[in-house]
Amino acid sequence: VWEDCLRFIKSQVQEQSYKTWFEPIKPLGLNETTITIQVPSQFFYEYLEEHYVHLLRECVQNELGPEGKLEYSVIVDSGSVQNQPYMVTLPNQNQNQNGKSWGKEVVEPEMVNPFKMPSLDKDSRYSNLNPNYYFDNYIEGDCNRLARSAGIAVAEKPGITSFNPLMIYGGVGLGKTHLVQAIGNKVSEQRKDNFVLYVSSEKFTTQFTDAIRNNSIQSFTNFYLQVDTLIIDDVQFFSGKEKTQEMFFHIFNHLHQNGKQIIMSSDRAPRDLKGLQDRLLSRFKWGLTADLQMPDFETRMAIIMRKMQSDGIYIPDDVVEYLAYSVDTNVRELEGVLISLIAHATLNKTDIDLELAKQTLKNIVHDIESEVGVDYIQKTVGEFFQISVEDLKDKTRKKEIVIARQVSMYLCKEYTNHSLKSIGYHFGGRDHSTVIHAVQSVSDMMDVDSKFSNSIDELKKKMKMKLV
Ligand code: ADP
Ligand code: MG
Fold it and tell me: Would the CB of 174 count as within 6 Å of ligand 1?
């Protein structure tokens, strides 16, 4: 039976996730209503619960019928005194401990179909907000300063600031949903009577199409016109959907005229939103548009450390640095790497160290160069001294460039297998004596100039991280 479950799961999740999260599970037992599985750790169990509860329930119930339950046996970490597995049972209803397990579904941002709601009084107002997204755990950096502070301003005085609508845009995984949800959470926390609604554009579109089909446009609009703070995520999804845009335009105008707050997010700047009607785009300009960028190195460090703190895990400094340095695509990916790393450490019952981090990253991030070569050194040194790679290879005799060039040669000597001749060749065809001279000057300078010496150490650290 568990085999069947696995087959089903395999067809539903990515291979990497399957390997990480499902292969290590051991089936322990089965009776008419319950499958018992063994998982390697508490963390593992929580992760499954958090991310795969729907899938697990679905496959267990496929196998055992609607009464089907899943029982976990958790192996206690070998580090602790106890070594006996302990059991956690997950009933198929929501009556479980602390809202964990299957019951989690209730708080998941699953939109209640508004016009099927029995009544729209305060109690039945369903905000669709995820309580894990708030400002305190939204790390500030140059990448998001304007958007974040505008968000806070809006959250404090929804509908009153000139940031209406507030439009947040940025690439995938850069924190749009987190930010707009944080605004929503803050508003509803501070103003119980403010009806906050978070909805993705996709959901809005589906609700609208359903409403057309069911002849319930009236209740659809009535519902939306009652909202005090409307958060629409990923409006790029409206592109090309004329009817939906018309409806949104109508709701937007009505809310805006009545001093209600509107917050939107999009994966690109409004001017690049193809397929959106101009009249809608021009409305977006009424308020404030702020973008999110990829966090810089320091902010990435802070994000990782914040995550460690809230998850109660410890990761050595050099690993934190390594991750922050290596994962420069987006924050979601950074979190993904972190989670995998913890999972690997838990599974292998090892400590988290650089080697494991490197290993983990190799499996996940594909485009990370895994070798220190001349190119890498030139690029890294160039970035460090803010000098182009061309200049490093060129004949320029400007002092800063000469120094950067010598540093690059020095690092090439130290970290690659290139001969002096070959190193010289990579720097605009200089001869080997120039390289010897460069190496000598750099070590001399390190002896007398501690600031310079620190810079070299920093660069060396980057090289070492790559070499692990
Ligand atoms: P988007 O909606 O732009 O695709 P998300 O809001 O889903 O991105 O963010 C992806 C993940 O990264 C989330 O888990 C979010 O909490 C996290 N994240 C993004 N930016 C930050 C930040 N500045 N501080 C802390 N966590 C962040
Ligand atoms: Mg999002």
Answer: yes
Per-residue pLDDT tens digits for 60-89: 888 888 888 888 887 764 433 333 344 444
Task: From the options 3.30.300.180, 3.30.70.660, 3.40.50.1820, 3.40.50.2000, give the CATH code of 2-107.
Answer: 3.30.300.180
User: Would you say how long the chain is, in residues?
Assistant: 468
- pLDDT tens track for 409-467: 999 988 877 788 889 988 988 999 999 999 999 999 999 999 999 999 989 888 877 76
Domain ranges, ordered by start, for the chain: 2-107, 126-291, 297-364, 374-467
- Ligand 1 atom closest to the CA of 334, numbered from 1: 12
DSSP 174: S
Mutating to test ligand 1, I would choose from 145, 298, 331 the residue with most ligand atoms within 8 A of its C-beta, which is: 331
pLDDT at 314 over 70: yes
Nearest protein Cα to ligand 1, atom 16: 178
Phi, psi of 36 (to 5 degrees): -110, 130
Predicted confidence at residue 437, as pLDDT, reads 94
Q: What is the pTM (predicted TM-score) of this model?
A: 0.61
Distance CA 340, CA 326 (A): 15
For ligand 1, atom 25, the nearest C-alpha belongs to 138
Q: What is the DSSP pairing of strand 229-233 with strand 196-200?
A: parallel
Fold of 374-467: Chromosomal Replication Initiator Protein Dnaa; Chain: A; (1.10.1750)
Ligand nearest to the CA of 141: 1
DSSP state of 329: S
